[in-house]
Amino acid sequence: MQYGDLCCVYVGKRPMIVLNNVEMAKEALVQNGTVFSGRPHVPLIEWVTKGYGIVAVTYGHAWKQQRRFALHTLRNFGLGKKSVEERVAEEARCLITEMLKHEGKALDPMYPIMNAVSNIICSIIFGDRFDNEDKRFAKLLEILNENIRLSGSAVGLVFNLVPFIRHFPGPQQKILQNANALTGFIREVMEDHKKTLDSENLRDFIDAYLVEISKTVQYGDLCCVYVGRRPLIILNNIKMVKEAFVQNGIVFSGRPYIPVIDWVTNGYGILAVTYGHAWKQQRRFALHTLRNFGLGKKSVEERVAEEARCLITEMLKHE
After folding, report:
1. 244 and 235 Cβ atoms separated by less than 8 Å
2. In the chain, is it the N or the C terminus that has fewer CB atoms within a 10 Å radius of its CB?
C-alpha cells in the first residue's frame, strides 16, 4: 500500500504531514527552510523548558535572536575552524587513554564515547572539560540519559496527549526533577562565571551570553514581568510601540500559546494563533477578500451608517 509523496496522519488530535519524497523534503526543509523552521507544540518539552531554548521551541522572533547569537558566538569560538578540531583531537586522545586502561578486556564503549562527545560540548559552553572520574559530571550524564529514555517512553506519549497529568505524582515528575537538577548545575556555573567575568577576554559561551544579557537589560522604556511562569514584555514608550508594531509589524505579529484557545480552535484561525506560515496565508487571504468587499472604501461606510440608523431606531423605542 502506498500513500503518495505527501500524506497526513493523525497522532491523537495532532495532524502530521509526511513527506515520502527526497526532492519534496529538500524543497520544504532546504529551499523553504525558514518557512518550515517551526516546531510543533510539545507539552512535555514546554513544561520542562518553560518555553526557553532553540532546538525544540516555536519558531519566532525570540528563536531567531537566540539562533543568530548562538551561531555568531560559536563561530567566534572556532566552530568550523581548527580551534575546535584541536579540542576534538584532545578529547580523542583522552578517549583512547581511557579505553587502553582496560588492557584488552571487554567493555561497554557507550559511556566513554558519550563522555567524550559531551566534553567537547562542555569545553565550548563551560570553558573546560570534565574528568571521566568526576562524579557530578557522571550524574549529569545519567539524568540526561534518563530524561531521554522517559521522554521517549509511554510516559512521554501520555503526557503529550494529556498534559494535565503534570499535576499528579508519577514518572513524569522525575523528568521535571532531572531537568531542574540540570538547570541548577548550569546556574552554579553561571554564578561562578559572573564572579570572574572579563568582558574583554571571553572564555566560553556562558561568558558571551552574560555580556549579551548585560547589554540588553533595561528597566526604563522596556521591561519584563512574569504572569505565573509566562514572561511578558512591556513597552512604556510610544516610539518603541510604533517601532515594534508598525515598522516591525510582521516580526511582532505572533501570539502567545494559550492552551484553552488552542483547545477550542484546534489551532485554526487568525487572531489568537501562533504566527507562522499558515497564519500568513490566512491573513493574506482575509485582507485581500475584505478589500474586495469594500474594506476601507465607502461601501463599508454605507453599511456602518445603516447599522447606526438601526441602533438609533432601537434606542428610540424605549422613549
Report:
1. yes
2. N
User: Dihedral sign, CA of 130, 210, 256, 33?
Assistant: negative
> How far apart (Å, rounded) are the C-alpha atoms in residues 88 and 258?
43
Three cell numbers written together for 201? 577576554
Q: Dump pLDDT digits (tens) for 273-292.
A: 666 677 777 778 887 887 77
How far lies 191's CA from each of 25, 199, 203, 209, in Å? Answer: 43, 15, 15, 13
Helix H or strand E segment including 183: helix 171-195
Note the pLDDT tens digit of each residue in 134-144: 788 888 888 88
Residue 235 pairs with which residues in a beta bridge?
A: 222
Domain count for the chain = 2
Q: Is residue 282 part of a domain?
A: yes
The answer to whether residue 139 sits within a structural domain is no
User: Contact 112/91 with Cβ under 8 angstroms?
Assistant: no
More confident residue, 58 or 66: 66
User: 214, 194 in Cβ contact below 8 A?
Assistant: no
Q: Which H or E element spans position 15?
A: strand 14-19
The cell numbers describing 150, all together, are 522517559
Handedness of CA 267, 272, 274, 276 (dihedral sign): positive
Q: Residue 285: inside a domain, yes or no?
A: yes
94, 113 in Cβ contact below 8 A? Answer: no
Whether 304 is covered by a domain: the verdict is yes
Which is it for strands 6-11 and 222-227: parallel, antiparallel or unpaired?
A: unpaired
Q: Considering the entire predicted model, what is its pTM?
A: 0.57
Alpha-carbon gap, residue 313 to 259, rounded angstroms: 42
1 pLDDT band (50/70/90 cuts)?
Answer: very low
Tell me the C-alpha to C-alpha distance, in Å, between residue 126 and each of 2, 75, 302.
49, 16, 66
Query: Could you tell me if 45 and 23 are in contact, meaning their C-beta atoms sit under 8 angstroms apart?
Result: no
φ, ψ at 39 (rounded to 5°): -125, 145
Q: Which three cell numbers stand for residue 258?
A: 494559550
H or E element: which one contains 45?
A: helix 43-49
